[in-house]
């Protein structure tokens, strides 16, 4: 009889131990899952902040490009005005030489402004490309909830592709 009681207590102890172990593992997994979810949320917020900063830089570059364009238009108007002055003062050699010097300086400034405008346009295009890449990165960071599981968007896309391939076969 003692043998049966001993076996019964052993089985009961094993069952209680397995239950406690199962609860501890579940709690640990829930805690790790919450930590991962918080890390993903933090990463999403950081990405959103970076996106806002890029948009701000893009706006600054656009306004700088507009300023350069206005400067270029003003310098072009000034160049035209100087050209008209050259025609009006044809009789004075000394004045003509000075006006030609001014005209060449304005032409150089115009070329510099054109170069700056092209450079700013390239920067705008680069920032727009970075913006598109950041949007894609944010979309990959988004996650879907299915039951009690959080699944990253990239994993969902891969699963959908795999299901599509299996359906096609």
Helix and strand layout, with pairings?
Blueprint: H1 2-88, H2 93-141, E1 143-146, E2 149-152, H3 153-168
Antiparallel strand pairs: 1-2
Question: Mind explaining what this structure looks like?
Answer:
By secondary structure, the protein is mostly helical. The chain has a single domain (2-168), classed as Four Helix Bundle (Hemerythrin (Met), subunit A) (Up-down Bundle), CATH 1.20.120. Helices cover 90% and strands 5% of the residues. The protein has helices at residues 2-88, 93-141, 153-168; strands at residues 143-146, 149-152. Strands 1-2 form a two-stranded antiparallel ribbon. A hairpin with a 2-residue loop joins strand 1 and strand 2. Helix 1 packs antiparallel against helix 2 (93-141). The longest helix has 87 residues, at 2-88. It is rod-shaped, with a radius of gyration of 36 Å. The mean pLDDT is 83.
CATH architecture: Up-down Bundle
Order of helices and strands: HHEEH
Number of strand elements: 2
Main sheet makeup: 2 strands, antiparallel
Rg of Cα set = 36 Å
The average pLDDT is 83
- For the largest sheet, list the strands in their spatial order: 1-2
CATH fold title:
Four Helix Bundle (Hemerythrin (Met), subunit A)
How helix-rich are the residues, as a percent range? Answer: over 70%
Strand content: under 5%
Can you describe this structure in just a few lines?
This protein has helices at residues 2-88, 93-141, 153-168; strands at residues 143-146, 149-152. By secondary structure, the chain is mainly alpha-helical. The chain has a two-stranded antiparallel sheet.
